[in-house]
Amino acid sequence: MENKPLARKLGALVVLSEAELGVLEGLHRRRRTFVAGRDLVHQGQSDQAAYILISGWAFSYKLMANGERQIVDFQIPGDFLGLRSVLLHISDHSIEPVTDIEVTEVHVSDLLEAFSQTPRLATAVMWAASRDEAMVVEHLVNVGRRNAAERMAHFLLELGARLTLVRLGSREGFACPITQYLLADALGLSAVHVNRVLRQLREAKLLTFRDGFVGFENYDRLAEFAQFDPTYLDQGGPLLPIDAAR
After folding, report:
1. Which of 1, 88, 98, 176 is packed most tightly, with the most Cβ within 10 A?
2. 93: closest CA among 130, 63, 138?
């Protein structure tokens, strides 16, 4: 169980007991795989299951009437896919794998049963959902108020922090399958502008993005440049130890 990204992520808030880890393990019964480039959730789809991403990357996006796309966020191992859609009974966005992915399918009945057995697990999942909402707020600030270089730096620092939480990144950097075209759709820039900004950050010796790896050349200076404060990601360590919840 210690190898599950979701357990690592939720463990940042709640120190789960062995029994609670067993309940969480029970959510991983239905394994499925999806190939890159084919939506697993469609905007407007009803009666949709949620998924827990085990391996690979995906992204959620809104499709406009004119065919243009706005990427809302990228999902990494340990993230829920389509959780809000299950609760609302209809999906307000689409989800597409960036790479081939492995997921577990979770029905609303699975969640309700797990939450009834261990309310602290429900608390942790609520925290994860609130954290996702906080990231969307930061993304709105990114697009609306930060210049292109700050926007890029902040977004990649956030991805790095999220990946570090599930042991897939560090202050040195992280493996990243995102193309410049996907970055452009997420950050409200053109692909040409993305290339120019990455070159600017590289020449400033702040970060590099080559051969599928984002390298933080000077993490502290990059964070200062982007005004990146990770407190909205709630990564200050476990807040609800086992004994405190009993």
Report:
1. 176
2. 63
Convert the pLDDT of each residue in 48-102 to its tens digit.
Answer: 688 999 999 999 998 888 878 889 899 999 999 888 776 666 777 889 999 999 9
pLDDT over 70 at 195, yes or no: yes
Domain containing residue 9: CATH number: 2.60.120.10
Closest listed residue to residue 116, CA positions, set 23, 18, 14, 241 = 23
Distances (CA, A) of 85 to 5, 43, 49, 127: 22, 10, 8, 17
Residues 26 and 63 in one domain: yes
Q: Which residue has the higher pLDDT, 244 or 105?
A: 105
Instruction: Identify whether residues 105 and 14 lie together within a single domain.
Output: yes
Q: Both 127 and 156 in a single domain?
A: no
| pLDDT recorded at residue 122 | 84
Question: Distance of CA 51 to CAs 36, 75, 126, Å?
Answer: 16, 11, 16
Nearest to 174 by CA among 203, 212, 139, 202: 212
Domain of residue 194, CATH code: 1.10.10.10
pLDDT in tens, 115-132: 888 888 888 888 888 888
Of residues 182, 144, 211, the one with CA closest to residue 59: 182
Predicted confidence band at 8 (pLDDT cuts at 50, 70, 90)? confident
Query: Do 94 and 191 sit in the same domain of this protein?
Result: no
Residue range of the domain that includes 26: 5-131
